[in-house]
Design goal:
The protein is about 5% helix and about 55% strand. The protein is mainly beta. The strands form two sheets. The chain has an 18-stranded antiparallel β-barrel. β13 and β14 (about 285-290) form a beta hairpin. This is Alginate export domain-containing protein. It comes from Eiseniibacteriota bacterium.
């Protein structure tokens, strides 16, 4: 499991041991320290499990591409808090795919330790915090960096693994905040017989003058030693809240080397969200995405947007088009418009519809690519349970018919989740 990272993991384990010894010798006993609500002093735990069922017809807009499969995963976390939020944590995930999914995974099991870290959220009340080890990490809104592991064995649609191995730090002082990180590049992104090696590093500096208003400037660089790829990205992200309105966006400028060619991709998103009041608590979101495509007239430069390690946090964030984003891929050489309307007809029940229009940025012929329409129902249930049902329908346009096929795509997914956490007796 740690074949390619034994030396790195040894460093993390040593850091955990040193930190535990330091905390044990602290002048103020952990039991008397001010507790952090998220991780209390002492031993606590968190458990979760998800089971989902998937039906897809006409994947990649091609006939006879129908898939029916089920997925499931269970995750366990154990925390030992030293007080004031400082803690060590360890945990793992077991996964299962039953049937054959549209990635070609068939009847697969998997399991992995996906968390082993020391977390100090606010060292000495200084506003500075850090995490060392195998950890979850998201830079900003996750548009660039959020998923450090490429799921390839089981439960691929649910994306249960997203960890990074390395060090991250954060600092907050008044309205200013900063984040920095240095991680190993996971070998899961390369050929299992010839895994990738290298590092991923970067950070951002931000200003939050008031709640709901933020501006941040970030930088990310990757160095893959075996492939001579050294891409980097500069990102500007911001949001502003005025009453029921939220306006935001992020713009990414890419450079560096992709081996034999130079990278000069561009990408970003912009959105306007309105949230109403009343019985149904309506929300409306209009969002646009733009990912540059490679200009075929240039041989020494790649203008296509190179997706980084974005994560999933909500429908079409950031797998744009939850049917097409997982199959034909929509995060490069694509311009997308999204409209979403949401309602809450009763407490604990949510309903949303999403409409997408996709267009190719660089094509030899026509640029219209596809439409996708989604409908989602979320339902909270007693005893830590929740469920959702999602349906999607996608229609190919001229560019998609040339690249893939003319068959309409459809999917129907349903999932049931359970979460539970608690504190063990001292």
């Amino acid at each position: 499991m740690f074949t390619h990272k034994q030396r790195s993991i040894a460093v993390w384990l040593l850091a955990l041991l040193l930190a535990a010894a330091t905390a044990a010798r602290a002048d103020e006993p952990a039991a008397e320290a001010e507790e952090d609500d998220s991780v209390p002093a002492g031993l606590s735990y968190a458990l979760e499990a998800t089971a989902s069922n998937h039906h897809v017809k006409g994947a990649w807009f091609t006939p006879d591409s129908s898939f029916d499969w089920s997925e499931g995963f269970a995750r366990a976390r154990v925390f030992y808090g030293f007080g004031k939020g400082a803690h060590v944590t360890a945990g793992g995930v077991v996964m299962r795919t039953q049937g054959t999914d549209y990635f070609g995974t068939q009847d697969e099991n998997d399991g992995l330790l996906d968390q082993l870290a020391l977390v100090v959220p606010n060292a000495g009340e200084s506003g500075f915090g850090f995490t060392i080890g195998r950890q979850s990490f998201t830079l900003g809104d996750g548009f660039l960096i959020a998923d450090g592991y490429y799921d390839h064995r089981a439960a691929l649609w649910n994306i249960p693994l997203a960890f990074y191995d390395g060090v991250s730090a954060n600092w907050t002082q008044g309205p200013h905040h900063a984040t920095a990180f240095a991680f190993d590049v996971s070998p899961s992104f390369g050929d299992p017989g010839d895994p990738l090696e290298g590092f991923l590093a970067g950070g951002e500096f931000g200003w939050t003058p008031s709640e709901g208003n933020d501006l941040a400037l970030g930088f990310v660089r990757m160095d893959e030693t075996k492939t001579d790829r050294t891409p980097f990205a500069v990102t500007v992200r911001g949001s502003s809240t005025r009453g029921p309105w939220v306006i935001g966006g992020e713009f990414v400028f890419e450079g560096g080397s992709m081996g034999d060619v130079d990278l000069s991709g561009r990408g970003g998103h912009a959105e306007v969200v309105w949230t109403g009041e009343g019985r149904f608590k309506p929300t409306v979101k209009l969002q646009g995405f733009w990912f540059s495509g490679d200009d075929p007239a240039t041989d020494t430069e790649d203008e296509g947007y190179d997706p980084w390690q974005f994560g999933w946090s909500d429908w079409s964030n950031w797998y744009v088009g939850d049917l097409l984003g997982s199959t034909v891929l929509t995060s490069s050489n694509m311009r997308t418009l999204l409209a979403q309307v949401g309602l809450t007809p009763r407490e604990g029940t949510g309903f949303r519809v999403l409409a997408h229009r996709f267009d190719r940025v660089e094509t030899e012929g026509d640029s219209p690519f596809a439409y996708e329409f989604d409908a989602v129902v979320d339902q909270e249930l007693p005893h830590g349970l929740s469920a959702w049902v999602m349906g999607a329908y996608a229609m190919p346009l001229d560019a998609a018919k040339v690249e893939f096929g003319s068959e309409n795509s459809m999917q129907l997914f349903a999932a049931l989740s359970w979460k539970f956490s608690g504190k063990l007796a001292q």
